[in-house]
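Teaching note: in complex prediction, the entire set of molecules is handled at once rather than each chain in isolation. The prompt given to students was simply: 'Predict the structure of this complex.' The entities are:
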Amino acid sequence: MWLPHFVQRNALVRPLAIALSDAARQLTWSELDARTDSIACALTDLGIASGDRVLVMSSNRVEVIELYIAISKAGGIACPLNPNSSLPEVEHHIANIEPIGAFAERTVLERLGLEDRVSRWAIAIGEESYEALTRGPRQGCRLPHQGDAALIFSTSATTGRSKAVVVSHRSLMACYVGMAAETAMSPSDIMLNPCPLFHGSVVIGLALLAAGGQLAIQRDFTPQRFLTDVARLRATRAFVVPSMIRFVLAAKAFDATDLSSLREIMHGGGPMTEDLLQAALQRFSCRFLSVYGVTEGGGPIALRGSDEPRPPGVAHVSNPPLPAGRMIPGAQIVVVDDEGDSVPPGEVGEVCVRGDGVMERYWRNEEATEKTLAGGWLHTGDIGYMDAAGYLFLLDRKHDLVIRGGQNVYPAEIESVLRKQAGVADAAAVGVPSDEWGEVPVAFVVSADGAPLDLLALIASCSAELASYKRPAALYVIDEIPRNAAGKILRRVLRERLGARTELRPSRGAVAS
Amino acid sequence: MQDILSPGRQLLMEVLDVPEVAARIPADADLILAGINSGDLIRLGLSIEERTHRPLTDDDLMDLQTVDGIDRVLANRT
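The expected output is the structure of the full assembly:
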């Protein structure tokens, strides 16, 4: 009941305060409550039943959050998906979750032919047909239970096909409890959000809303608009990925912009480097808060403020990264060995978490669910250690995940696209460090018969079948993909090969052979 | 379509991870729909600011959606 509950409560407590805003409109709590009631009733008239899935594919705008709430009020489950997803990605997701309907902007509806791909209806956000839903009657809406699914997020997967993470109302409330306790979110807050609302990190924005604050949504991120909106809105908070901070610091308007309203910038989705944090602290006059989270964990599980003393790490791990933080209230974190046993402070193992925030399951994927939730703990796949004071340090990943600017990319997704192209005998992808994005994926291909490969055509095939952030930043032709005796790709060898041949680094001149 | 080596196209090629992709994009095509990552467009904007020593305006940002638009923004700053 969490999503409908906090909207109704805030509509009673602060009806005229702004809840949501974007460049085109703003909604008070009273308006948000009324509009979501009406949409929920309309959805009921359209035949939505408890537990039905509804696809939401849109760029950032007020209506996206409005739909998450309205679909919950109708007893359904909102299923956000990147509007820039390729057709094969969308087909796979739809086949898995079987939505009864879809909401998307007109360009997305038409590009993907969504009207023909969902079972009953597709409605264009921003058009009169959508607005008509918001003006109907308000009575007769359902109130979901805390254990009911509220959202199903799509995540990348080691298999190359996305998995669907089921997040309950209880999980969303757990996120609020943890974040509100540690960050003092309040109704006086205005939080600027340039991060995609289809991403699991949207739970932070929902927590801010639950606290009665205003979520100011940016359609997309540009450093220039970020600065303009902080000053225009007198934003008190922002949630960004570290690469966004780097870009904002590089913008020409930075020094001339009044940023004095900012009290805290939360950052997550990838590691923050010491150099970038220090540069940011020198030029912003606010606190920075590191947010470590995973979609399957219901969002944030550990936090660390820039005003906390930096723990030294442990002696036997050289060059420790900045700590990811300490567990938030409600998220119990342990580090376990290969047998699943908890290890003492300072010893390296897999990071696991338990709490109300943890996902219910993967949608229609029992095998992956059992593996990920083995023993009642969510196995994050992140490798690290916890010091005696409870600070978590992340060192590596158990799986072959690339995090590009906060977005997860599994090499298998790229490899499966490349391997089916004509003339390609084998392919492998790895993540390599990037100053701007943290990491970027690069790919290696092997020609089937030694004949030259059309690398631009291969890049084009990736563009056609993968969301743009998954496209390899570079493509290299090699004679053979290194594998071990079991056939597993030796990605470390590929990374070493790149490191040894600096002229092949993917920053520029990326198509090479 | 404008000349393949227009200033806007040249600049776009400089900021892309895969510069050759820019050569194939029609001058009036939406860059995102043509497969350009939004992150590449951020780099493009910062690169224009760096070259022209002026912040981009909202109108400029709205125009940075096609190769033609990049050319217009550059032309307005010279």
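Point out the following to students. DSSP finds five helices and no strands in chain B. Helices of chain B lie at 7-15, 20-23, 38-52, 58-63, 67-76.
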